[in-house]
Design brief:
Layout lengths: L1 E5 L3 H11 L4 E5 L2 H8 L6 E5 L7 H10 L6 E5 L4 H9 L4 E4 L4 H14 L7 E5 L2 E4 L4 E4 L2 E4 L2 H12 L5 E2 H8 L8 H15 L4 E4 L3 E4 L1
Parallel strand pairs: 1-2, 1-3, 3-4, 4-5
Antiparallel strand pairs: 6-7, 7-8, 8-9, 10-12, 11-12
């Protein structure tokens, strides 16, 4: 499921992006102008908008999008506690409303409920580069419009790298998280899988740190 988050609080937005990215495909917008820029080239399954952002606030933006016949489900987050803003949120086209401060698990439950109510399919597609999209559920990538199948272990490896982008991952960590304990791979086997991934997504995406492990960039 692809989510567009609009939140101007730098600390909160970082927390939300880190948390939501563990389960969903999340993109970020600072204000309404950034939202419109995103919508020019992307479709989303869910909006999560804060009310208080610079310029056009979250409710004004959502109301405007509804006038443009954008029916994407929306969850409003806000520090307001009065029923007036709650009423305005639903009248503007929101489907759910969550008040700050809130638990991250509560937000995730509201997302799951919205997914269920609107029958949103989880496509689990991640854009790796301009011409490559990784489809986790289908265990493959689409490269320049051509579908390329990946083996189960290759798909799991790529998924693990993507979830740990920019972090040094040792061979032992990869082996323990991808393989069963009684079938841990040799270093040569692991290198073979890394080589396969590089052939598909590009040699520059997975960097070897000699004697230590790999970094996905």
């Amino acid at each position: 499921m692809k989510i567009l988050l609009m939140e101007d609080d730098a600390v909160l937005s970082d927390i939300l992006i880190d948390f939501l990215s563990e389960s969903w495909d999340v993109e970020y917008a600072y204000d309404s102008n950034a939202v419109y820029d995103k919508l020019e080239s992307n479709n989303y399954d869910l909006f999560i908008f804060d009310i208080n952002v610079p310029g056009k606030n979250g409710l004004e933006l959502l109301k405007e999008l509804r006038l443009f016949n954008n029916t994407t489900p929306a969850i409003i987050i806000t520090a307001y506690t009065d029923t007036k803003h709650l009423k305005n949120a639903f009248e503007s086209g929101a489907h759910d409303y969550i008040k700050k401060p809130f638990e991250l698990d509560e937000l995730n439950m509201r997302i799951l409920n919205t997914k269920k109510l609107f029958h949103i399919e989880t496509k689990e597609s991640i854009k790796i580069s301009e011409n490559i999209i990784f489809c986790m559920n289908e265990k493959g990538v689409t490269k320049d419009g051509v579908k390329i199948s990946l083996g189960t272990k290759d798909s799991l490896l790529l998924s693990y790298f993507i979830k740990n982008i920019g972090r040094l991952i040792k061979n032992e960590e990869l082996a323990q998280n991808i393989w069963d304990f009684d079938s841990l791979p040799s270093d040569a086997t692991l290198r073979s899988h890394i080589r396969t991934l590089r052939e598909v997504i590009g040699k520059d995406k997975i960097k070897t740190i000699r004697g230590e492990g790999y970094i996905y960039e």
